[in-house]
Design a protein that fits this description.
heterodimer; A: 179 residues; 30% strand; globular; B: alpha+beta; 37% helix; DUF4252 (chain B)
Amino acid sequence: MKKIFLSLLILVVTNVAFGQSVFDKFEDQEKIRTVIVNKKMFSLLSKMKVEDKETQQYVNLIKKLENLKVFATQSDSKAEEMKATAEKYLKTAGMEELMRITDKGKSVKIYVKSGATDSQIKELLMFVDGSGTEETVLMSLTGNFDLDELSVLTEKMKLPGGEDLKKASKGSKGPKGGK
Amino acid sequence: MKITIFTAVLFSLLLLSCSNEPSIQKYFVENSGKKDFIALDISPSIINIDKSKLTPEQQTALNSFEKMNVLIFKSNGKNETQYQSETQKVGDILKDETYQELMKIGSGKDGASVSFVGDENDIDEFIFFAKNQDNGFAVVRILGNDMNPNNIMNMIGILQIANVDMEQLKPLQGLLK
């Protein structure tokens, strides 16, 4: 009996844990707005023919992106849950704090995982703590991109927390210009 | 202990390989005649346009498009449980590997997702799934041959200049009543 229980448990655990990100549990929850864009979407978009230079810049960045997840909530309990998950994740993911902004009771923290060079980023995590007055936003972006290029994205996409991300992109001290 | 782990692994492999999941197509067939569902087939003839006026790119785009199937479930305040179970069903079907999710937005109460079947450069099918607790949900299948991002952009261009044959959209009027 015990054996059967154990094997069932292992079965459930392995199947659930397979290929799941820690943040996936926030999907389809009430009171949480989600935006998820997968790698396939980015690669489809990057195949489009574009003529003007600005859009070309945008497409160049998109090619380097893999996954975008944004979760936003107004609910206090959900915000707490998001904060706890983010903190737990940061402890294990080996990410560095890029910047921290506190503005009118809301705090924004941005963490990155660097790639080959300092300005090359493999993963970016942003947490906006609304502290009950504003929206709490958790954003995770993976790929292999340059921090400077992100400003193109924040200008084109209207995402929650986009304004805060813009500050990070402008404030970066990484080498400018180069790809 | 070893045997336990072995059985567990075997079981999970078995579950994975036996996942003969119902497809979206089956779901359409099963539900199109049911109460509270509206099914709709749209053929390319909905686009009334003089083909000679199209650019070669637009023509390939038009040819890549075969048909569109729409299935709508209408909420009426009494079928809440059915709404829950049906959206769950569609959601589960779309989780299958065949359907590659492109993007998804939602807020728990309502949501929308876009998936596709096939290869990036040769898309066989697009599936849109949108739901709203108060209104119901809709699944749209766009079937085609060799659809790609450029063809889709051209298609949107065609729709802007074409006369859309409203006759084919008539069943939708039932939604507004």
